[in-house]
């Protein structure tokens, strides 16, 4: 997978993950172009389109579009599966996820994605394992933060 | 739970955290940029503080802003600071920010190496995990090199969580730092059998991706993967493994056989569509894109796997209600179509159904498929369906797409699948009724193409076009349809050019001169005007036959009345043509009033037929022996006429750059006469290889077509009604025709008659199986380079009644080399290679003399000027042993007469002994060109001056004191019938490239009463071969030379050379100055040396030549020339 984009129906970018090194200018250009193309498609249309020399696989969940770019030889259906799996993960983590969850906790959404995909490849196919890893990392963060808080800014407690 | 606590505590801590920022941005929709710039200022303040928590918060906010498109590269160092925090919370944010913001050119990345290494070896697995994740996004070659060892160690970490991350990131490391692959590979291979399925799947992933780049190195892993494939139940892993085998199988055919069973099982059993799709796809991708030479072997896999199985499974996909599956099914189907068209064709119904799909991308896919599915049998049916869709289609883009597809489908491979062109024309006419299409020009070009190339259809096409012109108002009715009015361009041209087929030319003429025409675009009006003139000629002709001359005069009056409208046109082209024609018509009217018959002369203006000519056709023309090219076919032009033509034009060659049919003018009578003459000559010529009767018939289709019943059916009634779909009736007619034909054929077969099918070329019957039974009703003229038969005809297209034949004198039977420059459009030049027997007495040949004073009729002159382009007759030829003979001729009428009588033969020889000029540094760079001048005319030639335009590389050596542009005087005069030789020395700097030099010869032709100054342009061609000297070489010296290693290698394949091997060698020796060193059976080594001492060694086999030389460019050129030699035979 070359990159993954999440954007709203209004065309606002909600999340971006690039697995190929590109400069910011190029990234912006691609994002703008793709968001336009995908939003222009009618709801009944299939989820795949050919774009430059890549294949774009996208799926809409509520008001959010999940959009992945894969190479020519890659499997479109398994990419759809990846998107779906990621949505399920978000759903489990946030508890029936909505767009706002992702906006306000965008770093969490990234953490989950990073546990699920690494360098553009699926690293963990078991949902349970991904969630476990995230929860443990969060716990680690929580206790550390509390300790840290009491140390740094006692007056706030 | 955990999340809530974290949220709460951060909320309390800072003035503005990420949530506040997001909320703020949402609340400031109007002045977002302003709000964000104040936020960035705050963030800058926060970053200045020492508190790491504040910094982390600021970095977190920056990451968000970065996503919104703001530049945060200025904070790169702060990100590194946060990354190096010892707290996981901040580290996590730091790495996230780095992975989002850093790229290869971020310079602070250098600072992170040690920090990352520390994190990788951290006892906390999440520290390590976060570092690995971050690294996967911003790894640079430097980081990869420095950290490769650390990551490799992590591949054997005790925690599977770390192991799988480490394995996956190794792929990125390999990409950035390939040297790490070798040491890391054994460990990577171990991970394929890791107890943890996650690690295992990661290893499969990595190896699969690696194998796609270079499959050869991973063949040894095949058994391991095979085991995994049969044991694994994880679809993600299975997909990767199948992909991997797709890459490996072409290299190892046995693998294919082994895979059949598990693959078939998977295809049958799996419920996962993604896996099924991968199976089908891989199997076919495998075949279609063989990466390596073992193409035929890789076929094993798919050959033994019946395509029906896959196609059937794909059918299930396509029939599914899910759009995605439908789309992918069609996509995969199109891959199978390339190899198994038949198994896909049986699902035509299904594909056609997809045209009704709501999803445009699915419809387009289906259209793509249809393009490959048509055959002679089903073309009409498919196009009929498509036409229905055109009517129903919503949205112009899709309709335009349909339109182009219909035309693509019909016109593919030279109308291969069209059996009835009347049907096709009517389809095109129906397409013109499309609302608002942009593709008017496409339809127009098809109409033109078909009308020009399918001669038998012209009558029908003209009738259709006349109807179109009559109803032009329907096309131009509203502005939206402007695109379609392009069709009128074609219609007007066809009606004009083939006006003899018009039933009622007068009516069409009137239609073309309607005032409304002036609203059309300029270029169309121009065609209208020009073709109105053509029609006018036709009408006059028909009317003058009558006793009543008033009709003819009325026609002229009509022209005179209507043309002024066009004379006023703002478009220059229209104006120019109109005023020209208007004056002409006025003149005609004057003549008519004097009761002079003018029709004949007027129609001569436009006489002649257009014929398609392949771009390289002329080269393939064998000139029959005995054809006298010296004799005048027509009277030569008078001098006064020709003098206004600039001699400069000699070099203004027109060489066709594309294969569009050339329009040539041929006098039918003359053509027939020549055809007869040629047949006779061919019959007497033992060297002439007769074409098979079937291929000759291709050109005589007119009588053959008459046997086809469909042509004779009276179609006038439905065709006169515009707006009525009529292509359908041709479908029926075609069916009838085919049935009839089938019946006839059966009859014939019963009687076992050997007669060929009437009047149809074989070419189109090459379709497989039952396709052959369907013969086209009309023949398309196909002009390609691979059609020698055509050239037989085209040669007589070039040699026209008005041609000025140019005398060419050839001393050898060697075919013309590629270097000759032959303008295809030339009407006045032709060359005649003579048989070797004529060599000796060539000089004694007397050219036939024609009196230049014979008068030519004025109209013929006009006739010539209309279509005949001034030819630039100048061509060169490579001939003979070590001599290069150049043929010079000129097509310019002024010079022509003279050239025609004075033959010039140029030869040049390379200076073979380099020590001729002792102590000269330019040894080996001199070439002597010896030129034989031969006077074949009756006049005395004197004061000849030979001059060559020097190039940087080659210069003519001139006596001291003369300028670089001065000519050399030829030291003799030439009385009639005398030849003499002069030598000119050239200095050549580099001999590695062939050279062409332009030159001129000026001379004075002296008759009893007058003397004229004449000029002759020529080209000298220095081929690389001409720089080679036949030098004997002994086999041991030859072997030493090859071993020395100084020589560069190159090779060339000789295609289609079927001559005995010793002839082949003889040719190379003879034409390219090589000597045979050693010959063993059908393999020989040859040697030659250039004048500058380059060694050229050849290893000649029957089909290929391997060559070595110390100068690769020279070698390449010599090989090209050798190849050319053989392509001529």
From TrEMBL, chain A:
<dbReference type="InterPro" id="IPR044733">
    <property type="entry name" value="AP1_sigma"/>
</dbReference>
<dbReference type="InterPro" id="IPR000804">
    <property type="entry name" value="Clathrin_sm-chain_CS"/>
</dbReference>
<dbReference type="GO" id="GO:0005905">
    <property type="term" value="C:clathrin-coated pit"/>
</dbReference>
<dbReference type="InterPro" id="IPR011012">
    <property type="entry name" value="Longin-like_dom_sf"/>
</dbReference>
<keyword id="KW-0653">Protein transport</keyword>
<feature type="domain" description="AP complex mu/sigma subunit">
    <location>
        <begin position="1"/>
        <end position="140"/>
    </location>
</feature>
<keyword id="KW-0333">Golgi apparatus</keyword>
<dbReference type="Pfam" id="PF01217">
    <property type="entry name" value="Clat_adaptor_s"/>
</dbReference>
<comment type="similarity">
    <text>Belongs to the adaptor complexes small subunit family.</text>
</comment>
<dbReference type="InterPro" id="IPR016635">
    <property type="entry name" value="AP_complex_ssu"/>
</dbReference>
<comment type="subunit">
    <text>Adaptor protein complex 1 (AP-1) is a heterotetramer composed of two large adaptins (gamma-type subunit AP1G1 and beta-type subunit AP1B1), a medium adaptin (mu-type subunit AP1M1 or AP1M2) and a small adaptin (sigma-type subunit AP1S1 or AP1S2 or AP1S3). Binds to MUC1.</text>
</comment>
<keyword id="KW-0813">Transport</keyword>
<keyword id="KW-0168">Coated pit</keyword>
<protein>
    <recommendedName>
        <fullName>AP complex subunit sigma</fullName>
    </recommendedName>
</protein>
<comment type="function">
    <text>Subunit of clathrin-associated adaptor protein complex 1 that plays a role in protein sorting in the late-Golgi/trans-Golgi network (TGN) and/or endosomes. The AP complexes mediate both the recruitment of clathrin to membranes and the recognition of sorting signals within the cytosolic tails of transmembrane cargo molecules.</text>
</comment>
<dbReference type="GO" id="GO:0030121">
    <property type="term" value="C:AP-1 adaptor complex"/>
</dbReference>
<dbReference type="GO" id="GO:0035615">
    <property type="term" value="F:clathrin adaptor activity"/>
</dbReference>
<keyword id="KW-0472">Membrane</keyword>
<dbReference type="GO" id="GO:0006886">
    <property type="term" value="P:intracellular protein transport"/>
</dbReference>
<keyword id="KW-0968">Cytoplasmic vesicle</keyword>
<dbReference type="InterPro" id="IPR022775">
    <property type="entry name" value="AP_mu_sigma_su"/>
</dbReference>
TrEMBL record, chain B:
<keyword id="KW-0597">Phosphoprotein</keyword>
<feature type="domain" description="AP-3 complex subunit delta">
    <location>
        <begin position="666"/>
        <end position="794"/>
    </location>
</feature>
<dbReference type="InterPro" id="IPR058898">
    <property type="entry name" value="Mu_AP3"/>
</dbReference>
<feature type="compositionally biased region" description="Basic and acidic residues">
    <location>
        <begin position="732"/>
        <end position="746"/>
    </location>
</feature>
<dbReference type="Pfam" id="PF01602">
    <property type="entry name" value="Adaptin_N"/>
</dbReference>
<keyword id="KW-0813">Transport</keyword>
<dbReference type="GO" id="GO:0016182">
    <property type="term" value="P:synaptic vesicle budding from endosome"/>
</dbReference>
<feature type="region of interest" description="Disordered">
    <location>
        <begin position="732"/>
        <end position="779"/>
    </location>
</feature>
<comment type="function">
    <text>Part of the AP-3 complex, an adaptor-related complex which is not clathrin-associated. The complex is associated with the Golgi region as well as more peripheral structures. It facilitates the budding of vesicles from the Golgi membrane and may be directly involved in trafficking to lysosomes. Involved in process of CD8+ T-cell and NK cell degranulation. In concert with the BLOC-1 complex, AP-3 is required to target cargos into vesicles assembled at cell bodies for delivery into neurites and nerve terminals.</text>
</comment>
<keyword id="KW-0333">Golgi apparatus</keyword>
<dbReference type="GO" id="GO:0006896">
    <property type="term" value="P:Golgi to vacuole transport"/>
</dbReference>
<dbReference type="GO" id="GO:0098943">
    <property type="term" value="P:neurotransmitter receptor transport, postsynaptic endosome to lysosome"/>
</dbReference>
<feature type="region of interest" description="Disordered">
    <location>
        <begin position="627"/>
        <end position="692"/>
    </location>
</feature>
<dbReference type="InterPro" id="IPR002553">
    <property type="entry name" value="Clathrin/coatomer_adapt-like_N"/>
</dbReference>
<feature type="compositionally biased region" description="Basic residues">
    <location>
        <begin position="747"/>
        <end position="763"/>
    </location>
</feature>
<feature type="region of interest" description="Disordered">
    <location>
        <begin position="817"/>
        <end position="865"/>
    </location>
</feature>
<dbReference type="GO" id="GO:0000139">
    <property type="term" value="C:Golgi membrane"/>
</dbReference>
<dbReference type="Pfam" id="PF26171">
    <property type="entry name" value="Mu_AP3"/>
</dbReference>
<dbReference type="GO" id="GO:0010008">
    <property type="term" value="C:endosome membrane"/>
</dbReference>
<dbReference type="GO" id="GO:0006623">
    <property type="term" value="P:protein targeting to vacuole"/>
</dbReference>
<dbReference type="GO" id="GO:0098830">
    <property type="term" value="C:presynaptic endosome"/>
</dbReference>
<protein>
    <recommendedName>
        <fullName>AP-3 complex subunit delta-1</fullName>
    </recommendedName>
</protein>
